[in-house]
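FW: tagging you since you asked about this chain on Friday. Here's the raw sequence from the shared folder, copied in full. Didn't touch anything.
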Amino acid sequence: MRKSIAVLLTLTAAASVIAASSCGKKVKKADPTDVNASTETTASVTSQPDPLTPTEITTVSETETTSVTTTEASTEPSTGQIDPLGGGAFRLNSDGALVFEGDPLKQDDRLLMAAAEALFRSAMQKEWDFRYNPPFTFDSSLYIENSFGWRYFKITDDGINSYADILDRYHKVFSEKYISDLSEYYKESNGNVYLLQGGRGSDIYYSTSKIVSVDSKSEGSISFTVENHYDGTDIDGSEPYSEKKEFSIEYDQNGVWRVVKFTLPN
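HL: got it, structure written out here
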């Protein structure tokens, strides 16, 4: 009886050991699902992000920002320059007079100087033409002479029947207040007008003229200073020099500027 119990206990203990061993092996066996999950987790941690996608987005963003900044900087208007043509603020009409838009007394002096310079150049051309290169057709076979024997030739243009007709055209640019010796170049006789055809050479040293200041402004008139530049360096070695003259204008309610005081520099 005792032997049977001992054998039974031995068998029971052996079975327990085998069962325990079998259970241990089951615990240590890896679950395929767990392995895959672990692999995916490891891959997600160790793999690098696509270098193209984020870099491309960042680069485009930076490029666009730079582009916008550059464009704004390049199109920013300059505050120190005035358009020499006036930017639409003034123009020369077909007669050579200057037409200014708006009230000149409310404008920047630099704009007024640009307008004055345009009128000054027009006045130079007009004065030169009326004196030395008359803009009229004449007949050199028909003439009168003055006390010095100078010949004045008959103007044949329609509409020129008196000296007043000459002045009417001249005063498109020059004010009636402008003191001129134009009468020395034109004579009226027997309902006809005669001109003195005798050109003269220009000052070979003359270079250019520039309006340098606005001296006074009042309703209907503005006074400027013009600086005339001369240079004989390439002619006879003379040193460059300049001289300043008054240049003044008057303007009417239509914005038309005409010359009141002017000296032909060449």
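FW: DSSP finds five helices and ten strands in the chain.
HL: agreed, and Helices lie at 2-28, 32-46, 52-75, 109-132, 163-170.
FW: great, closing this out.
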